[in-house]
Amino acid sequence: MAELYKKIWKKKNLMKYIGDTLQVAGAIPSILTNGKANGVKATHVMTGSGLEYYVLPGRGMDIPLAFFKGKPLSFYSGTGITSPAYYEEPGLKWLRSFCVGLLTTCGISYSGAPCDDNGTLLGLHGRVANSEAENFSITQEWKEDEYCISLKGMMREASSMNEYITLKRTVESKLGSSSIKIHDVIENRGFEPQPIMMLYHINFGFPLLSPNSELIIPTLKTEARDEEAKKDRGVEECRIFGEPVNAYQEKGFFHIPVAEPNGTTMVGIVNFDTGDGTPLGLSIKYNVNQLPKLFQWKIIREGFYVCGIEPGMAYPMGRKAVRERDELIMLNGQEEYKIDLEINVFDTMVEINTFKDYVEKIVKDRFR
Q: Which domains does the chain have, with CATH numbers?
């Protein structure tokens, strides 16, 4: 059954009040036509709970914009949405097509810093975010008394006589829910082992992110990425945020997360007052057996006020460095690697405290 407008509904009872389910929830496909976004396919998803988000089948099925009851959840950069036709791979030029958004997918075979990996020049964060989905489909249907919205597509990373890797993605929400479920299946369709470096660049922006916000992460240890991250009590204050600072330099932190015995963990952010007296929070549930590394990206600069939480298969230090640390995950030919994430949004202190209590509990259980 669906919870909608503080009431539990069965399909038959709800349908008495509406003409089509899209009146309260659903997915609407479109094609963007403005500027550098021209031609990019998009889908607007509404769950009915106040959660709305856009999925871009024209850009790796990433999520550039998301809102909860009218409030933005993510940061959106000045690049805006750009067509893959404008993608530039070398060095840091990937940033020219990085609108940030709620989710930017990095990978498939490499992510992180640009590098020369055994003679192969790799740019920042991989190609998948600039790949258009194939076989994209939208399914909206009742399953007994639950209305399910499901978006599916496949992105490929391939080079003649070299790698042939695909990413099959499913993005799901239900009527009345405040969650986004992502199920990814990475497949090596070749016959030789290939490196896999999936990283999920999940980014918070104003008003979810403000001086009233606190990052919630169950960690064993936190380390600064470099000397810049150590400055001004960087590690000690990595979970809190001040006012925007002129010319603030980005800081990066490596977290070692605590998880339940089955590998499940949860990280996220809570804001106790978004400016109108109401709280707002977002949690990310995933499994450390699938995504063993966790990185934090923090920039509280004027005009670029963002914090990213990045569960991944490797830290974003570039494939060469990951290989040298003997942390590069290889996927054998004709094999699959599955990843699941769930993003939940909430706006009551009861839900915030439940989230914080869960995180505190798994940390306490770890040290018993």
A: 2-366 (2.70.98.10)
